[in-house]
Amino acid sequence: MGILPEDKPVKPKLEPHNFYIFGRPMAGKSYFASYFPHPLVLNTDGNASQGTAPSIQLRNIRGKDGKLTQNVMKQIDEVVLELQSQQTTFKTIIIDVIEDVCVMVEQAICIEAGVDALGDIPYGKGFSTMKSVLQRFVMDLKALPMDVIFISREIEVTDEKTGATEIKSGLKDSYYNIVTGNCDLTIRCQKLGQGKYARIVKDKRADYKPEDISDKRIKDLLSSCIGMF
Ligand SMILES: Nc1ncnc2c1ncn2[C@@H]1O[C@H](COP(=O)(O)OP(=O)(O)OP(=O)(O)O)[C@@H](O)[C@H]1O
Ligand SMILES: [Mg+2]
What we know:
By secondary structure, this protein is an alpha/beta fold. The protein contains six helices and ten strands.
């Protein structure tokens, strides 16, 4: 037996496991994500204590000398390693919010290099380190036998010439491409009015059918999103 597969078409496995959820503040992003099975939240904004899901606070901590006593890159590595190597009952990892993780990683790279901005690190090495750290983080999470949800805040960008406003994720374009390039579904959360919330599927990797989703709870959650099935 060689390493090559048999030369015949295979039936694609259609099931989304990686989700990108964006929306304005208070639009119900964290709320929606917390209903996924057995969630673990990697939190950045300190308001995880308001939710019921167990969480880890991601942060850089600086000592008196300005050096990092806790480095967010190391912290992420340790979490991923533990998720990879230990038996765990968690079934969903939620990153709340991804742009803060990027800012913190940038900050950690800058502090370690003793500079103010990534661009101050010679030969573009700051940017390339940042990109590879993010890429590895996303791919490591994706490789876990769990669902992954990236949460992002949305921003409104107005074109000065035409006056047209565009709604987009607050994540920088180059980072957005890395993250969403590894996601199967993009969902926008919206608060419509008092007690009224909507979730709209903005992008999907495949034309999923309800029978493609093996977990009943996830199927129900996704069914509540406009444009899913
Ligand atoms: N579908 C929903 N039904 C009822 N209440 C909801 C729903 N979605 C959100 N809420 C309520 O709205 C509030 C804000 O929701 P949530 O914290 O999920 O917002 P968020 O988008 O994560 O905001 P932020 O960007 O500030 O973290 C919460 O009190 C939550 O209980
Ligand atoms: Mg939130």
